[in-house]
Protein 1
Amino acid sequence: MGIKLRPHHLLCTQGYSGKGYSEEFVEHMNEVVSMLRREEPTLIDLTFSTDTLCGACPNMKAVDNCETNEKVKRYDRKVVEYFQLEEKEYVYQELVKQIREQITPEMLEDICDGCSWYPISACRKKILCNYLQGLDKAE
């Protein structure tokens, strides 16, 4: 079975730095993220519902239902709107590259507003790397 990712997890998998909700979640996240961060192309199914990462999350109550469902759906909706994503198969590395080329600090702040991991993860550094490099070149 392939990796299913919900839209906002395209960002989470980039900014992930080894922290999580539980030991089981961190182990699972480490596995999935290591597969996605390989150089060779990795096919993913973008889903607008529960995904591979949700399976080990202690906040998941049922399929497409999480303790913070409204917030999670808002993150997904914003990622879809900003990057014109569809529920279909993508090459993870190409999609991440596209997002990194388009994202701005304001977009990231808007998408991740209310995320408890955002302030303590490597999201800004890893996701905004292209944006920040562009600033360095402009100076």
Protein 2
Amino acid sequence: MTFLEEIAAARRRRVGEAQDREPLAALRARCARNAPAADALARLASWPVGRRAVVAEIKRRSPSKGPLAPHLDAPALARAYEANGAFAISVLTEPDYFGGSVADLEA
């Protein structure tokens, strides 16, 4: 099994466990209360020509590099990314390999 396959298998197990606790529709509704989802394709279509559409990432650790920013303040970092022109923000919620959580996404 490759490292990527190992991560995917672990994630499938965790997703199944999480869906037993909270259905996907309930999770989406909970997240939408905090920040309604944007229409990324519509936003990209109206993005200024020639301006890079950077997707910024909130990630505490990397499977290959180890700890990156274990104590980061996800909301503060997201605000900084937004203030500096990020097109979108990716919030890694996978806990075992990336150190993320749904709480980061909610925040």
